[in-house]
Amino acid sequence: MSEASNEAPESTATSSFLRQFTSRRASSGPEERCELCSTSLNPLHQHLLNPKNRQILCACDGCAILFCGQAGAHYLRVPRRLRHLGDFQMSDLQWEALMVPINLAFFYRDTAAERTLAMYPSPAGATESLLSFESWQEIVAQNPDLQTMEPDVEALLVNRIGDGAEYYLVPIDECYRLVGVIRMHWRGLSGGTEVWKEIHQFFESLRTRSTESRRPVHA
User: Fold this and answer.
1) Nearest to 136 by CA among 146, 127, 145, 122
2) What backbone phi and psi angles, to 5 degrees, belong to 65?
3) Count of CB atoms within 10 A of residue 139's CB?
4) Greater confidence, 30 or 177?
5) Which of 218, 106, 203, 207 minimizes the C-alpha distance to 162?
6) Longest dimension (CA), the chain
7) Which of 28, 48, 151, 172 has the lowest CB atom count within 10 Å?
8) Cβ atoms 201, 73 nearer than 8 A
9) 118-170: per-residue pLDDT in tens?
10) DSSP 8-class letter at 215
């Protein structure tokens, strides 16, 4: 994932995970290595983000400590916390005001762009949607959890497909993982049955791994 690329930043990040998925399918036991020092990695390893080009790298613990967390560091460590926002407040009108064309999207603060970006997965990768600043600020004011998101490396992931709606605060690599799943399995105009099965399994896994976040009830 560290090679030079002419792809757009979001496509580069998505392609990184897509290559990982492809390699796992092609081999029964591919060995992942740190992309900074080539050390062999465990399945649960660190990810680093280059905020300038949105490139995500697999890293060992040593390189994660060495290359981030200090002034002038080139990379940011992607956190591992996964939170299901059980009492998240967003009306249908507020969602429509965000102008996202599908019912699946993620939102994060991009420090390079100095604004919050709205992205949605598509067969072509992560696509940016025009975000209404006023509408987003209203949602942030209603949901204090959004004020705790780490810039660049954490995102609000929204799933409004089917009945009900789900809201998660997730590491940014989970969002690109979802985009990679959709790119790899999408077929035809509607996506086909396989991609919707994969999306369902992605969120099933997310529910299992997430902790519940609810605001305290005051007497």
Assistant:
1) 146
2) -70, -40
3) 20
4) 177
5) 203
6) 57
7) 28
8) no
9) 999 988 889 999 898 899 999 999 999 999 999 999 999 999 998 889 999 99
10) P
**154: alpha, beta or left, given left = phi > 0 and alpha = psi -120 to 50?**
beta
Q: How many residues does the chain have?
A: 219
* Amino acid in the structure at residue 49: L
202, 161 contact by CB (below 8 A): no
The mean pLDDT of the chain is: 85
CA dihedral 18, 103, 173, 8 (to 10 degrees): 60
DSSP-derived 3-state class of residue 171:
strand
- What is the structure's pLDDT at 7? 42
| Residue 59 φ/ψ, nearest 5 degrees | -145, 150
Amino acid at 113: A
- Single out the residue of 183, 171, 178 nearest to residue 202, CA to CA: 178
* Predicted pLDDT at 59: 93
Res 194: pLDDT: 93
In this structure, is the dihedral angle defined by the CA atoms of residues 50, 16, 9 and 193, taken in order, positive or negative?
Answer: negative
* pLDDT (tens digit per residue) in 16-28: 555 554 444 444 4
Cβ neighbours of 165 (radius 10 Å):
14
